[in-house]
Design goal:
- With about 70 residues, the protein is mainly β.
- The protein has one domain.
- It has one helix at about 20, and strands at about 5-10, 25-35, 40-45, 50-55, 60.
- Strands 4-3-2-1-5 form a five-stranded antiparallel beta sheet, with no helix packed on it.
- Strand 2 (about 25-35) and strand 3 (about 40-45) form a beta hairpin.
- The longest helix is centred in the first third of the chain and has 4 residues, at about 20.
- It starts with 5 loop residues before the first strand and ends in a 7-residue tail after the last strand.
């Protein structure tokens, strides 16, 4: 995963607030990375409504970009 990549939130590991649950199935763009509690790296994702949240990498799937000519 890299900054600028489009990703889809496809699962949530932990119980989270309802505003984060609403992001399930949504597509966003990786804006940055952050260290988690020592067990890995999380991706900060910005969505079309300009909201941001971070997710573990295994909660995200890459979204294929359409090829334009």
């Amino acid at each position: 995963m890299e900054i600028g990549q489009k990703v889809k939130v496809f699962r949530l590991r932990d119980r989270v607030a309802s505003d984060i649950v609403d992001k399930l199935g949504k597509v966003g763009t990786i804006q940055d990375f952050k260290m988690t509690d020592g067990s890995g790296v999380g991706a900060v994702v910005v969505f079309d409504d300009n909201s941001t949240s971070w997710f573990f990498e295994d909660e995200l799937k890459s979204v294929e970009q359409p090829v334009t000519n």
